[in-house]
Design brief:
Immunoglobulin-like; single chain; five-stranded antiparallel sheet
Length: 137
């Protein structure tokens, strides 16, 4: 039997520098148009500060790969128009969406963060799958 850990699922969980990033994705049939080669996926992210210092999310870098190995990179300030500050123990949760031209794909990336004293660092967003139902994987 194949090792299932090597295949990304619609869920990801990574901890970098005591910041935890959890993601859950789902196919959005109500916003998709498969006949027009447009599949829409919603994803929800929870970022939790498990460290002892206050941090702020400054920007994001997403790497989105579709089933044809076409790669799009998305960079920008903050997330959903915000640059949340997280004190120790605090979480920030948001939802967004991603269009694909194929019914399956993969997302991963990084958030650029700073400590309260201005020291920058990156945190990982572990890869997660984007999968429309009834597709061959």
């Amino acid at each position: 039997m194949a090792d299932q850990r090597s295949k990304p699922t619609p869920v990801s969980d990574a901890v970098t520098n005591q910041i935890r990033v959890e993601v859950l994705s789902r196919y959005s049939p109500e916003n998709s148009s498969p006949q027009g080669s447009q599949w829409i996926f919603q994803y929800t992210v929870r970022i939790t500060n498990q460290g002892a210092e206050t941090v702020q999310l400054i920007s994001r870098h997403w790497i989105i790969t579709d089933a044809l190995d076409h790669v799009d990179e998305v960079r920008g300030p903050g997330v959903i128009g915000e640059q949340p500050v997280l004190a120790p123990g605090e979480s920030f949760k948001y939802s967004s969406w991603c269009p694909l031209k194929t019914p399956t794909g993969l997302m991963r990336g990084t958030y650029q963060m700073i400590h309260a004293d201005g020291r920058p660092f990156d945190i990982e967003i572990a890869a997660f799958a984007l999968r429309a139902p009834y597709t061959v994987h």
